[in-house]
Amino acid sequence: MKRMYTERHNKAGRILLNAIYNGANSNDICMADVGSQQRCEDDEAPYVGLNHVPADMLPPQADQGTEEHARWLRTKRPDIMLCNMQGHSQADIGQHDILIVELKTCPDTRPTDQMTAARQQHEELVERLVERGYQRDNIKIYPILLGVSGIYAAHTINTLEQLGVQRDAALSCARQLHTLMVQQLHSVVTNRRHL
Predict the structure, then answer these.
(1) Interhelix angle for 123-132 vs 112-121, to 10°?
(2) CA 95 – CA 81 distance, rounded (Å)
(3) Are the CB atoms for 16 and 35 separated by under 8 Å?
(4) Is the whole model's pTM more than 0.70, yes or no?
(5) Considering only CA atoms, which of 16, 5, 32 is closest in space to residue 144?
(6) DSSP, res 111
(7) Are 193 and 32 in contact (CB under 8 A)?
């Protein structure tokens, strides 16, 4: 079941990544944890090539190079992250905008817990980015909540627009996410009955 949930999440992430990639902020995508290159190609989604926060965006750590540090990089990675330099140099990181996108599946009628979890999940990452020199006010977390039966939060379209996706493309993305969740719900229920 866990593999099924992970693949459902990654498929939704690839739909979301494709919408962002085809929007105004495509050049700002710096990482995406949405599955393998083959899965991205199969779903006609872009493959970013990096599935964790770029090391040069984080401050040096005392445990760098250890298994503990590698575990932190694996577990504290957002689904998608964008870094907008706004015409500033790479060295002037205090002016860069960091957009952290976290996709969460939640009960259709109780999304609040997952909204909170999405924000809390990346608090330590935000702290490390601030320690590196990025401005806290320029770091934004954008949770995208999907109900298990396909309902998406009313603010999803606005969130996608804030991520550079045109309104029509945002509506199309939301419909694709809805369809995916409805299709996957049938698989989840069928598999649970067989357990």
Answers:
(1) 30
(2) 16
(3) no
(4) yes
(5) 16
(6) -
(7) no
